[in-house]
Each structure stands twice: as structure tokens, then as C-alpha cells.
TrEMBL record:
First and last residues shown, out of full length: 490 to 779 of 873
UniProt domain EAL: residue ranges: 24-275
Annotated protein name in UniProt: EAL domain-containing protein
Amino acid sequence: AAKDLGRGRFHFYSNDLHAEAEARSQLEQDLRDAIAEGQLQLYYQPVVSSATEKLTGFEALLRWEHPQRGWVPTDKFVKIAEDTGLIAQIGEWALRTACHELAGWPEEVRVAVNISPLQFANPQLPALVANAIAQAGIHPSRLELEITESVFLNDDTCTDTMFAALKGLGVRLALDDFGTGYSSLGYLKKAPFDKIKIDQSFVRGATLPGSRNGAIIASVTSLAHALGMDTTAEGVETLDELELVRLHGCSHVQGFIYGRPLCASDASERVKDGLTVEAKGPRASRAPRQ
Ligand code: C2E
Ligand code: MG
Ligand code: MG
Ligand code: MG
């Protein structure tokens, strides 16, 4: 009987896993269709200078509105795109679209584009970036590429070569989600970053009593400053958080306090009204999300 029970349980789990795999491969197929049918969009979230409170640029963020399922969480489909290699195609589209959009915005505005580890490992990336810049007719320094620490897990020499090649194009490089991965000071020594983006998990709850996050933010910004790099605090939602990250020296701020990601036409409207921005949001911080 014990054996039967065991077998029953095995079947239960196996059906569960089967259903999960099924759902995933369905979503993967839907993602292929989404690419073919142009369902993907790029949204643009304001990035603001602490010193001037002016908009300095936007981060381009993928959005997918599925005809039946509605909005699919970006983290979820980006993960599938990475696992299946579809990110190469999606990433190229995002890069070209963001550069094209940027060409219609004021000169002092930049765009930041996320580059996945898979794209970073492709030796063709610099040529692709150069081509996107040339086709859009934008100055390379107006494009910032956001890279996460996970790219350092790959071969050292390839990584160094890639950084040098990208830097040689004149684009800016940002280290995204700093503090969440295998953060090593060695990366900061070697890689020619123009900016460190402090992950929102450090901003969340930073204003609450006893939080160590403020000390971490202050240390990262002073280190970045000493190395000649900018810092963006990510995910700033409240006025208290805004005050704190500015006090601790973050040169740039990004978060709902200055605006959610906008569709391309809304972003274009936004810059037509001038580059001044206003912080809008609740005063107090909430408890950190678990
Ligand atoms: P990320 O690059 O760290 O982007 C910042 C994320 O924080 C975005 O989530 C943004 O909507 C969210 N965010 C910004 N301000 C706030 C705030 O005040 N509060 C909260 N709670 N969240 C805020 P999103 O758009 O869901 O994107 C998730 C991740 O998906 C991105 O994290 C990035 O890793 C990836 N991703 C998005 N677009 C692309 C892309 O074009 N290519 C690649 N490779 N990855 C992308
Ligand atoms: Mg990013
Ligand atoms: Mg980030
Ligand atoms: Mg992230």
C-alpha cells in the first residue's frame, strides 16, 4: 500500500510539473507570436537629476499586452526570452526602437536600454549597437546600456573585450541592480561604467528606524563618486525616500515619485512640455516588501 501511495504521489507531482511545463511552453509560443505580430511595446520611465530636478533621460522597459491574458509581467516574459534565446531578437528590436524614439527628443535627453547577459555574450553586439546608433542618427553618448553583474560570470577576457568595444563606440555603460548579485568591487575596478544603479531593494524601507540601507546607499554613492561614476537610486516611491537618497548623494533618481513608465507617445508629449519634473507621491515609507 505504501508503494501505491508513493506512486500516487509521484503521479500527482508529475502532473503538476507537466502542467507547469505546458503553461510555460504555451507562453513561449505566445511570445513568438507576439514578436511576429508586434504585440511588444517599449515604455519609458523618467530618470531625474538630483542637482537640477530636471529630466535627464528615460529607461526603456519592455511591455507585453497579450490579447487574451492581458499584461504579462515583464520579469516573467524576459526570463522566458532569455531561456529560449528569443531575447536576442527582442533585444535588437528594443535597441533600435529606443534609438529611433530618442532621435525625436531634445538633445540633452538620454535613453537607457537593458542588455541581457545573452546579448552581452554575443561578439556581434558592438556592431549591432553601432548600426542602431547610425540608423537613428543619434549621438552615441545619448545611449546608455544597462548591464547586470551576471555578465561577469562569463569568460574574463571576452567580458573585458566587450566592455572595451562598447566603450569605444562612445556609449555610456551602467551597472544595473547593483547590490543584488555577486557584487564585487573588482568589477568596479575593471569595467568602465559611467553609472551605478542602486537596486530598489536598498531604497525600500531605507527610511524606517534601524534600517541599514541608508548606510549602504551612502557608501555606494561615495565610492561611485570617487570613481567618477554617477549613481541612480531605483524604485523611489515616497517623498521620504526621495529626501534620503538625495541626502546620501545619489546623483539621479528613478521611481514612481517622478513617474511610471510611459508609452512612447506619452513620453514624447512629456518632453515637449519641458524637462522640469515634480515629485508626486506619498510622504512616508511603507514596510519593505517581503
Ligand atoms: P530593471 O532594469 O531593474 O528595471 C527597473 C524596474 O523597476 C522596472 O520593472 C520598473 O518598472 C520598476 N520600477 C521603477 N520605479 C519603480 C518604483 O518606484 N517602484 C516599483 N515597485 N518599481 C519600480 P519592469 O518594467 O517590470 O522590468 C523588470 C525587469 O525586466 C527590468 O529590471 C529588466 O531587468 C527587465 N527588462 C525590462 N525591459 C527589458 C529589455 O528591454 N531588455 C532586457 N534584457 N531586460 C528588460
Ligand atoms: Mg534596467
Ligand atoms: Mg534595475
Ligand atoms: Mg531588475
